[in-house]
């Protein structure tokens, strides 16, 4: 633990004093409900410092302050508060998912966390609780057909304003434009956080009884966690599209397949991972493949794809509900029944294909579209059936999905008690949100992780603080 670093403080700055909110010496002094810190008075240290003003941090601060109104709570945010919430969901903010209410099913949407999050995590505060919280605080929500939940305004500002107004109303000190650059623990067990401003020489040190690290995927957040004794699972991107080598695919850009079954095959990945096969909608883009199926595969295979430098194979079954033999039978039947029709214009509706894709298939077989079904060679029919059932695409890189991504990796879940979000390495240290090695597929699951983790961490600190406050008051009375 470094000595109390007075010498590093800028002369113009008020030196932050030790956090005393719950020590015996303060039992006769009053602790302001609204921290003076924000007004620059520094009369009392915030006792909970939340590092990171994203979804997890702000939600946690509100919860802690609600449970323990006398607790000094400050959220230190290096950029703008809730900036990801603002841009999320294309500016609409996909708050949570309304189709996966039950914890087991919900947890399956987290490639990192699917086993650990099956327990009490979502039971404590799941999507329904999140929805209720926002509705109770004036944000009306709607659930779309695919389960994604948005504010009825279709504007993420509703969510941002609600959270910030509530935090301010409760007296949470919101410190924007300041980054926590390092953290340590003093001999008395309190945290010492170094706070810097990017835009000036500002350096300050603040003490805290409790610290919540909710820094998302920021490198600085990982290094704070490491300084406080945690290991970090190397971060890699998740939720991306696949770049495909086949230039001919560009002809199909914009075509959507309502349901395909796609299997990701990666060199060196020997074990059969059931999640590396996904069924659902797929979209062809100018550079490759996208849509829910591809995004889910990118998430489940995030680490392996990173290892393979985003090279691999994708085997797509375009008619997953029809057996290969039935596909052949349907094609041969069609040939018999539509002998006089041109293959370009008419094809079996059972496959649910769009005309552009059917013509694309014919081109792959070098078939003239003006050919009549009667003269369609049987080997070509077999080849088309095979392509429909297992078309192999070469993945050559990763693309971006509407700028949306999430990071796999961070603080291992095993180093945190999920019932409290407290560190198993350092008492009174908490984690929530994407800083942990938890990430979900698209659909509102990543925010749900942030809300749930934030809520649990806020509950823990709020409860600890009010309990400790009570016992102090009791010991004061006895003196
Ligand atoms: C473009 C985009 C769209 C998305 N859309 C959705 C969506 O619609 N639905 C969904 O569920 N998920 C979505 N996600 C994912 C979701 O935004 C994240 O999973 C979620 O924001 C994580 O919340 P968090 O609070 O853990 O981290 P963040 O929201 O990343 O917040 C962390 C905060 O900590 C701050 N910080 C970091 N280090 C420090 C430091 N040292 N000192 C002070 N502050 C620090 C950062 O500036 C940041 O504001 C989207 C992601 C992106 C990039």
Automatic annotation (TrEMBL):
Its cofactor is FAD. The keyword Flavoprotein applies. The keyword Flavoprotein applies. This is FAD-dependent oxidoreductase 2 FAD binding domain-containing protein. Residues 48-459 form the RsdA/BaiN/AoA(So)-like Rossmann fold-like domain. Transmembrane segments: none annotated. It comes from the Eukaryota. It comes from Sorghum bicolor. Keywords: FAD, Flavoprotein.
